[in-house]
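Worked Example 4.2. Consider the chain below.
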Amino acid sequence: MDDLATFELGGSTVVLRRAEAGDIRSIVDLLAADQLGATRDGVNTAQDLAAYQVAFRAIDADPAHVLVVAHAGQQLVGTLQLSFIPGLARRGARAVGLDNSAAQLATARQLQDRFGLRYPLIHASAEQAPLADARFDLAISEYGASIWCDPYAWIPEAARLLRPGGQLIFLVNSALLMLAVPDEDDQPATERLLRPYFGMHRFEWPGDESVEFHLGHGEMIRLLRGCGLEVEDLLELRPDPDAITRYPFVTLEWARQWPCEEVWKARKR
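Applying the procedure from the previous section yields the following structure tokens:
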């Protein structure tokens, strides 16, 4: 497998290459060692590993996605997934990527060189994007700003950046899932509501420094409309009967009865 890029970091030589099937276990171990992934990732059974293998094959077969691993010597030290914007760029869109991680953007630039793609990559928070008003026709967030940034900050910013007629699309955990997920690690969503729906906003978890943001549907609609965005659709996603998940916080049985994810689509007036 050809290397994608090589660079020096902290006195070590780091090599980037496309992930292979043999990397799956090491990738999962990395995810599980992360503070955020500790409650979601891990291989404890053959069924767990099979779920990751299915996910890997789906990513590897999709030309719009590239799964990358980083090696320092013989040790796999990092992984990332690049998606969607390169696909748009290849089709003639004038894309711009924004991320709050300088390391993530450095890797993205190396991969731009590798795949012959050129579009701006900006180091900034989606809550304060250093970009001009009414510059974009489409803004997308997939479990990025959509859950890690305060919606009362990032959605007005997204609306500011869109031209009239421009579309905002974002993927989040469903409001219902957030009410039914226990505080304890590795416990799946229950059939009971465990926290209030009214006042949903900031979510923190015991023993975890991360913060997520989730709003109820009525509050989200009011926020979008207040920012000059008209809701066009709300897709409440339901997995296929034979779907496999690698996340312990929701079971297939649960997700077949209630939505665990939702996609919002809104358009700038």
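The mean pLDDT is 86. Residues 124-269 form a domain with the Rossmann fold fold (CATH 3.40.50.150). Compare this with Example 4.1 before moving on.
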